[in-house]
Amino acid sequence: MVLELERALQLQDELIQAYQGAQEQLRLYAQQIKDRADPVAALKAAEAREKLLLDLQKPVVARYGFEESAQGVKEAMFEYARMSGNNLVIKRNNHMERLIAAGEDIDYYNGVSAQQSLRNFGTRRPVPQSQFPLVAWEEFQKSVEGRLLPVPRHDMLSAQRTEELVGACKRGDLARAKALLDQGSCLALNVGFQGLGMAVKVLAQALGGPQTLELDISGNCLGPEGAKALAAGVPQALKVLRLNVARNRLTLEGVRSIAASLPSGLEELALGFAGMKTGPAGAAALAEKLPQVTKLSLDLAGNQMGDDGLECISKALPKSLELLHVVLLGNNLSRRGFFMIDRQIGDPLHEHHLPKLQPENFVKVGEVEVTEFKEQADGAMIRQVEWQKAI
């Protein structure tokens, strides 16, 4: 069965109408959120909700010539997934995702690399490629023609084993999760946008004791309690940690938990805290726990930390740094704040000079977002912060 664009749009519109009238799925979703502390109860609510959504989809796709079954739903979704480049299809996809998310924030920072699993649709759709790959998914390999082509990383947990792992965590099956993650001294996995919630506790307990950990757990609604559970399982013997916890609504409490869990013996750290909106206090909490690494990548986009927050981080940067990559978008920085780290690199007399960090090894993404002047009651314009504080 092949859908033309017009029929595909009609199918999407009917699915949207079905979702809008499904108040029971909203109730089950609320129950799932309420039962986060009880993984078994939360899983039952999630499974009941998925079954309800599937039952809504079956008669709809049957009207378009597909089998009235789970397989028929899957085939229908793949048909309009082929048209995913069409703006009308994209618009409807986004609307359906919002309805299924029951009002939850499903927007994702475009620098977060993730493969969002839409189990309700019976298919997977790729999220835009990351421009700041905290956890790289691909490596390059020569093709038979001699070209370099991106291929899945050979050392990353496979898609099939990842799906098994997510299921084991949601069931509370610690033994199975440990067996799947028994990868030796190096562990790399992507469980981004999988709806783990408090099932992250099982994942954290299963991590074991690798020396290198690359974990993308972005977009999983962890919250502060999930952050605490994850922090409790961070292996303390790590030498390399690449951790992406963006879009998890950690709040200041969660950021503090993750920061406090960073092993002191790390040599390389890549940390994704995008979209936390924790302000200067969150930046200060992270700065207080930064380890003495040689390579550091920080995705701090959308944290609204301002000049004061970035000043805390800049002062805490270790003298041992040889490579630094930071994303500073959405942080209300003035010119003073935006160039604060640059001064530490270029001025040997700076109090917080970074002697081993060369300009070519410093990458910064962002822009000046606020004026460094403010108007007083009498109309006079003064600097927000005296320049002497930045020297």
From TrEMBL:
Single GO biological process annotation from the record: nucleocytoplasmic transport
Organism: Effrenium voratum
Domain of life assignment: Eukaryota
Position of the signal peptide: none
A GO CC term assigned to this protein in UniProt: perinuclear region of cytoplasm
Keywords from the UniProt entry: GTPase activation, Leucine-rich repeat, Repeat
Xref: InterPro entries: Leu-rich_rpt (IPR001611), LRR_dom_sf (IPR032675), RanGap (IPR027038)
Matches recorded under Pfam families: LRR_6 (PF13516)
Entry protein name: Protein C10
